[in-house]
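Risk mitigation, structural track. In case the binding assays with BV8 fail to produce interpretable data, a predicted complex structure has been prepared as a fallback.
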Amino acid sequence: MMFPDTILQRLRQAQRIVFFTGAGVSAESGISTFRDHADGLWGKFDPMEVATPFAFAANPQKVWDWYSQRADVVRKAVPNAGHRAIAQLSPIKNVEVITQNVDNLHQAAGSPSVLELHGNLFRLKPFFDKEELSEGGRTPIICPACGGLAASDMVDAFGCKDDLQGIELVAGPVPRCPCCNTLMRPGVVWFYETLDNSVLDAAEASVIECDVLICVGSSLEVQPAASLPFLAKQNGSLIVEVNPQPTSLSEIADATLVGSAAEVLPLLMREVWGVTEGGMP
Ligand code: BV8
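Fallback model:
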């Protein structure tokens, strides 16, 4: 058995279960993680050059190229047994997925409730560079197509969201909104950008109320996301960690399952809740 009886009991009785996930849950789908061992993304690229609004303002094409290459990898990826195991628990328990990942794989696996703390690769949005607009005191207005703030003399007042059809995160010149000419960017949260308050508030409420938080595949290095599992612990949740490596959470976790998401999560589902690949106990 994976757990002492006391913990097994609490897991089986739990009604509200949060899965807090990081890049490690998608590693076995062929998507690079950021910080672990040499082939992590931040071992090859400087996040300050590809994952901040300043980097995009300075060189939008370089940032767009980096993200469109990542998007190509994600488009070819499929959910692994770890994503599927989490999705299979949803029909029998109140499960919330809170992810730092931007790859849409939890949704693709069938998880019905996913909070994306750092946005989503495939949701583009307008880039608004305040400096651009302040020159010459042009009055900004909200673009009717992309919702960005655009200089009044640059907006097609008859524009609409449909005009953005076909604009995707693919290799090529950085696209612009056809109605206001604003550059488009990936809908992810970069360093030095605040998370969407409504998403963060929902995530905090969820971890405070949950009976169990299962932390899968995160180094817990990035704030404010990394504080959430600790907030759950402070509020009396049972904490289980799934990771081949120890993290700062390991010291306070009630159980640490050393191993990969695709190996451990199906075992966890079967042993604790009797859920198998077929999805039913
Ligand atoms: C912000 C973009 C306010 C999307 C990313 C304190 C409080 C507040 C802010 C800060 C603070 N201290 C510092 C900051 C600033 C900064 C920060 O946290 N910096 C850190 C690095 C020091 N935070 C921010 O800027 C955040 N915004 O706070 O706004 C503000 C405003 C202005 C000025 C200051 C503050 C925004 C953070 C979001 C950044 N965006 N990415 C994208 O391109 O993907 S971060 C990036 O890291 C990804 O989103 C990623 O999801 C995230 C976290 O990484 P992990 O998911 O944990 O992945 P990692 O590779 O690190 O670890 C993988 C783990 O998996 C490992 O443990 C490994 O052992 C394990 N593993 C490997 N294989 C497997 C496995 N596990 C299971 N199975 C396997 N097979």
